[in-house]
UniProtKB/TrEMBL annotation:
Pfam families recorded: Methyltransf_25
Class of this enzyme: transferase
Region span, Disordered: 1-24, 241-262
Lineage: Bacteria, Bacillati, Actinomycetota, Actinomycetes, Kitasatosporales
Alphabetical keyword list: Methyltransferase, Transferase
SUPFAM superfamilies: S-adenosyl-L-methionine-dependent methyltransferases
Residue ranges of coiled coil: none
Membrane-crossing segments per the record: none
Domain of life: Bacteria
The Methyltransferase domain, residue ranges: 55-147
Protein's recorded name: Class I SAM-dependent methyltransferase
Methyltransferase as UniProt keyword: yes
Amino acid sequence: MSAEAGPPAREASPPAGTLLTDRPELYEARFPDPGRLAGRWAEDCLRRHGAGPRVLDMGCGTGRDAAHLHTAGRRVTAADLSEPMLAYARTHHPGPEYIRADLHGYDVGTEAFDAVVCLDSALLYCHTNEQLDRFLSSCRRALSPGGLLVAEMRNGAYFLGRTDLLDAPVHAEFVRQGVVHRSVTTLTVDRTAQLLRRVRVWSAGDGAPPVEERSAWRLLFPQELRHFLTTHGFEVLELHDGPGPRTEPPWREGLPPGRTADADRLHVVARLARP
């Protein structure tokens, strides 16, 4: 996986007023996914585990993955906290129903869905145990018995003894409509809060002043995540580091789930227990 920090193409509940959430067209230019790899991976998980057609995509971002699930025949409701993201999704990726909701606690109806999908580290914007409990309680309320939770995120265990993503700032750039956009990203580990903190400074060749953004992800460990899920009534069906849409090499159709949880991404499929 690239050392460039940040979940490609979506963030569920980042700090308000960030460059990419305010300008979703830049988000898609910076993190292209022309093959809809994340959406295809999620659909593969849903199909392999026999999920019904009603899907809630929490932290849908620009709507690309939700739209893919819609074209695969799912009845998709897609939720995000960013109004600009939702407006962009409705225009550029129609099909799903787009709503505003916060993954820290939401109510979209009782037993209204057969699956909840939460990709690209969106779940890790639950920084505290209380926020994670509220998210999982909301999932439990939204899912019908036997419903699935499919999530993909950074792996907190990767940072045990590894510093390759922390050693130096990462420089990146992309061009959109003739304007060069550059970023410098620095990651640090806040061990007390169990957070991976990110500072990213954006600059552009259009004369605008640089923009500094600060955000963070919860560093969840595989067994810790398993405990949270079990406590909330889920049976963990898969919990592994790859292959997945953000791994190297990436997931492709037909690859079985892995058996380890050591690399820098974590993938989970869990089923809500039937009464």
